[in-house]
Amino acid sequence: MFSWLANAWRVPELRKRVLFTAAVLACYRLGSWVPAPGIDQQAIQQYFNGAGGGILTLLNLFSGSALSRFSLFALGIMPYVTASIILQLLTAVVPTLERLQKEGEAGYAKITQYTRYLTVALAAAQSTGYAFLFKRQGALPGVNAGRLVIIVLTLTAGCVLLMWMGELITKRGVGNGISLLIFASILAYAPTGISAWINGGTTERLFFPIVAIAVVVAVVFVQEGQRRIPVQYARRQLGNRQTTGGSTYMPLRVNMAGVIPVIFAAALLALPQTVAGFVPAWSNWVNANFQYTSWYYLATEAVLIIVFTYFYTSVQFNPVDQADNLRKYGGYIPGIRPGPPTAAYLDRVLQRLTLPGSLFLATVAVAPSVFIHYFGFSQATARALGGTSVLIVVGVALDTMRQMESQMMMRHYEGFLR
Question: What is the rounded distance in angstroms from the CA atom of residue 253 to the CA atom of residue 160?
Answer without folding.
Answer: 33
